[in-house]
Amino acid sequence: MTPKERVKAALALREPDRVPTGEFATDHSVIAEALGRPTFWRAKRRYHEALWDGRRDEVVESMKRDIVQFTLALGLDVVPVNLVPRKDFPFRKPRQLDADTWEDERGNILRYSHETEDIGLHRPGDKPAPPSDFQLPPQPDESELELVRHVVEKLGKTHYLFARPGRFHGLGFIQGWSEARFLRVAEDPDAVAEQEMRNAEWTREAIRPFVEAGVDAIALGEDYGHNSGPFVSPSTFARVYAPALKWRCDIVHEAGLPCLFHSCGNNRLILDQMVDAGIDAYQAIQPIERIEEIKRLFGRRIALWGGVSTDTLARGTPGQVRHQALFTLKHCAPGGGLILSSSHSIVVRTPLANYRAMVGAAHQRGAYPIRIPERVPQPGWGGA
Fold it and tell me: Which domains does the chain have, with CATH numbers?
């Protein structure tokens, strides 16, 4: 089977020749180690600093080249694509206050994290946005589709390409589930539900360029919980969020593509509603959710995309990674419906040896019919 055929079979809940592999997201360090050179693919601080310095074309060329070469070098089946910054986007460099701190034109204080390598919002500013003569047009232009076109040309016939919708609007900051948002859900759930439905309608235009470019699936995402459970009760989720999630899935399905869904947190209490909404694959399956139990409960309705703890991949040993991979293969691969990957994504400083251990387990022991006769005890999963 080709990688594309392999993933299509897994998503259709059939057994392919072997369990496919590939990530929702992979930070730059593993790619750089595999290719023997720096990359701008998910390079975080280096990515933004290069854009601020007017090196947009260099950034995009690196992303195009490196995701293709990394996919082939590791023998992956699933490949992500996304829009890139527009050629004429006005990259505004914030004022640097010290080695790790900046202030932007709105007075936001930005700070670099040495742990994650992200530049994040440290303290919000109170200045009004300055007037701008640049307005991002409603539809992306060809320069924003450079990565998509390139990967479709190089890998589209052989590999399974999924798109992550969204456009570059500069260095944005996700406020997430803030206290104000919780209060609004509690005080006026119907108004929040209406807003969620309006936001869901955005999906139609967001996926259009990817559908026309010829990708195989759309990967949507929204975080609904933390490690201890969902942010809201199941009944509130059913009232406020489930209808919008169903509408987003329906839009993707109307375009003729599967809807892969990335959602952080322990979603076990609401997973039945997510499945009912129409997601075709569930990604970001944290260890606390017990992927083998999800397989038992929902394995004939959705595909599972995960199986090895992101924390173990980043801080464990190749042996621990392989143990978790074999456990997942043994309990979740039979019958199809498994893409073996991290429980969330491949984060910075993940050793290449650990990543190779996971991919190697799929290549060496993931052939169908699955034969893992040895006892593989429940792993010590670690964190995310």
Answer: 3-90+138-365 (3.20.20.210)
